[in-house]
Amino acid sequence: MSDIVRKRFGLLGRNISYSFSKGYFTDKFNNENFEGCTYENFDIQEIDSFTEILENNTDLKGLSVTIPYKQAVLPFLDKLSKKAALIGAVNTIKITKKGKLKGYNTDYYGFKKALEPLLQPHHKKALILGTGGASKGVAFALDELDIAYTFVSREAKENAIDYDRINATTFDNYQIIINATPVGTSPNTEAFPLLPYEHFTANHIAFDLIYNPAETQFLKKAKAGGAQIKNGLDMLVFQAEKAWKIWNK
């Protein structure tokens, strides 16, 4: 019997007691018989603690990165994939044999694969709610799909419109509304982005990057107007499988 090679992976985030990634990879390792593979949560309150994690866990092979560290982690990395550099956010880190850290973005890929089956010819423009790391991957995917987009932000920003400016005309112009903010995530499931939901129609897609709860208030309210809705679960599965390939290539 040869010794089983231990392969450790994990998730970097804040307040991640419940994480999709841990459950997903733990099940994967059990069901597909990946012996010696483990996946754990690295829950840190400040990104500076990342250095300690690396020093104390020298056998780590790869990490997923979640809110709020998709941009904050960039200075700690040795290298970025071309797409991660263009996007300016990382959700997957590969740790090389020499201990070098390379950042990738598989969010944009997961989002693109999850959105594509819903698209019809009239879906030409999208509103992206939020301007954080998650919204950057979404924008990159929309660029590849040839869909124009506008960011929506609560703070006045150069490249974003304010929530107050969204009205019936906006909904006529933008047929895809994407929630890339954490608003509505468990445990704060009663919260929702402040939109005039009465303008959603059957021509609209409402896509929420949140997967817990499965149907956020944002999606419920959009569905009431007849919109096609989708949560973030498929996107997470697609990006996790892509991360697995990166870690093992």
By CATH reckoning, the class of the largest domain would read Alpha Beta
Tell me the span between the first and last alpha carbons.
25 Å
Can you count the beta strands?
12
Enumerate the strands of the largest sheet in spatial order, edge to edge or round the barrel: 2-1-3-5-6-4
Radius of gyration computed on alpha carbons? 19 Å
CATH architectural type of the largest domain: 3-Layer(aba) Sandwich
CATH topology of the largest domain, what is it called? Rossmann fold
CATH H-tier superfamily of the largest domain: NAD(P)-binding Rossmann-like Domain
- Taking pLDDT < 50 over at least 5 consecutive residues as the criterion, the unreliable ranges are none
In what range is the share of β-strand residues? 15-25%
The outline comes out as elongated
Q: What's the domain count?
A: 2
Main sheet specs: 6 strands, mixed
Count of helix runs: 8
List keywords for this structure.
Rossmann fold, six-stranded mixed beta sheet, 31% helix, elongated, six-stranded parallel beta sheet, 22% strand, 8 helices, 2 domains, single chain, alpha/beta, 12 strands, 249 residues
